[in-house]
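A reminder from the course coordinator: this example appears on the midterm review sheet, so study it carefully.

Given structure:
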């Protein structure tokens, strides 16, 4: 009968013993006396018993080999999955490190190579006037006159860019750049401007309104108005 443990050798190459030889004569005599059978019948019986045991052990060996192969495949699959996870984690860490390095690199400003340099340098109004235009609010034309531009230039040289001020809108207080909320005490109403200043201011005002991305139909109305 087969052992209860795992097979230790492949029985497929085993050869049935020669039970007809003199080596097995005492065994045949004992079996014959008990079975009251001839010598030939005893030999056949011995071969049958051996063959039955051999087939059982061979079947068990094949089952063991199949289980061992499946276990090896599962172990290989788990090992491959572990390697894939480790590789994916390493790639993710490397990508995060690359992103951090890229963030710390100095960036050079981009430009439109097809855009031509203007022949005329537009004057830069005050931050207060620019903020008003961005919010689509009324702002005096004086800020776009020569005097307004001169004051804006002086203020930009004397006022810190990061100075903050408190602005109130709809009962809510917010911190904004002081230059963007501080009106000029020298600003004149539109009807107080000299005609020459008015003509210059309305032209630069229209240019700044366009830069502030006002809707096209509003720009057209302003052009007709002025």
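Designed residues:
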């Amino acid at each position: 009968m087969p052992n209860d443990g795992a097979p230790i050798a492949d029985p497929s190459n085993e050869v049935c013993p020669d039970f007809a030889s003199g080596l097995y004569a005492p065994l045949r005599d004992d079996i014959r006396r008990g079975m009251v059978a001839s010598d030939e019948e005893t030999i056949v019986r011995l071969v049958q018993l051996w063959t039955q045991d051999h087939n059982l052990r061979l079947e068990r060996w094949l089952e063991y080999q199949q289980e061992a192969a499946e276990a090896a495949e599962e172990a290989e699959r788990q090992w491959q999955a572990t390697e894939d996870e480790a590789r994916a984690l390493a790639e993710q860490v490397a990508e995060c490190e690359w992103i951090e390095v890229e963030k710390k690199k100095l960036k050079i400003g981009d430009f439109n190579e097809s855009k031509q340099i203007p022949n005329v340098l537009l004057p830069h109004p005050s931050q207060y006037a620019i903020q008003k235009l961005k919010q689509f609010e009324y702002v005096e034309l004086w800020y776009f006159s020569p005097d307004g531009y001169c004051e804006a230039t002086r203020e930009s040289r004397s006022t810190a860019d990061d100075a903050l001020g408190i602005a109130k809108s709809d009962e809510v207080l917010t911190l904004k750049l002081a230059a963007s909320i501080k009106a000029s005490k020298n600003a004149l109403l539109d009807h107080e401007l000299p005609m020459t200043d008015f003509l210059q201011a309305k032209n630069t005002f229209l240019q700044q309104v366009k830069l502030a991305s006002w809707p096209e139909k509003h720009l057209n109305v302003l052009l007709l108005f002025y």
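The chain has two domains: 22-103, 127-225. Strands lie at 164-169, 172-177.
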